[in-house]
Every structure is written in structure tokens, then in C-alpha cells.
Amino acid sequence: VRRLARVPAVLQWPNDLLARGRKLGGILVETSTTGGGAAAAPVVIGWGLNLGQSHEDFPVALRRSATSLRLEDGRTASRAALVGAFLSALEPLLAMLEAGEARPVLRRFARLAPGCEGAPVVIELGGRRRRAVSRGLDEDGSLHVELPEGKRILRSADLLRVLRTRPCSWP
């Protein structure tokens, strides 16, 4: 998206793609463990991207939180070019993961996700919204956050809103 559409998109843990704080798309990854263990587990990756929507195309409830490539750069990028670029970028990452090298993949995610370390965030725990500070990614991609009463590890995000961002690092 950054290369083809020249949109300064960032990732928001765990799976959102944002442009200027608005949702541009998302990535979902599902795995299923089989009898062969994690190395034999099939993985399904789904990717969604808002391409040509105008402001009025979004439901009223989403107009303040959603965007599209057309709204961000005034044009609609080629679907074929975007899919090709996505697959080209994904292939070496998958190869690293298959080789058991998650660390470089997590570093790359962290560079593109400014809210994963040292950023004030709002999370939802037990149906209550809580302010916390992000403290980085774990080896499995979980997000560490610090609450007033101590640290928590988040493995999924029903609600995570980053209040301020700065570059993220991962050891």
C-alpha cells in the first residue's frame, strides 16, 4: 500500500491497517492444529482493503473511523497490482516463519506498528475500557501492556485503540 498507493499506512496490533488513524483494511490469519503439530498446521490468510469508496459509501456509523485508498490519495490503485505486491511481500515472510525464524517477522511488524511499544492505549478487559501503555511484542506476537495494577499480555484485541504513537521496537 505504501509503495503502490503512496499512502502512509501503519499497522495496529493485532491486524488492522490504518491511514491517518482511520481503518483502511485488515488481515486475519487462522490456523488449525492437526495431529502433526504446529509445523504441519494449515494457515488461512484473509486480507481486506478499502479501495474505491467515497466518504458517503461508508455507513454513517463508520464515516469517522474508516477510509479508502481513493480518499487517501485521490485515485484507486489496481487490484491486480495490490494483490501482486501483497503476495510478493508475504512470500519471504512466510518462508521465514516456515524456517522457524519468527523474530525478523516480528521486527518488521513492529517497525510498521507504531503503537506496539511505549504508546498510551485503551483496551477492553472484562467489558470495561481501561487505559494502559503498550510495552512491546512477545515471541508469539502477543502484546504486553502495563496497567496501573501491573502488566498484562494480550493475545487478541476486541478493542485496542492507540491514543498516541511513536516508532516501535522489538528486541
Globular, elongated, flat, extended or rod-shaped: what is the shape? globular
Proportion of residues in β-strands: 25-35%
Instruction: Report the strand count.
Output: 9
- Report the major sheet: 5 strands, antiparallel
Uncertain spans: 165-171
The percent of residues in helical segments reads 10-25%
Brief overview, please?
This protein is an alpha+beta fold. It has three helices and nine strands, in the order ββββαααβββββ. The relative contact order is 0.15.
Can you characterise this structure?
The protein has helices spanning 69-73, 79-98, 102-112, and strands spanning 10-12, 16-19, 22-31, 43-49, 117-125, 128-137, 143-147, 150-154, 160-162. With 171 residues, the protein is of the alpha+beta class. Strands 8-7-6-5-9 form a 5-stranded antiparallel sheet, with no helix packed on it. The longest helix has 20 residues, at 79-98. It starts with 9 loop residues before the first strand and ends in a 9-residue tail after the last strand. The model is unreliable at 165-171 (pLDDT under 50).
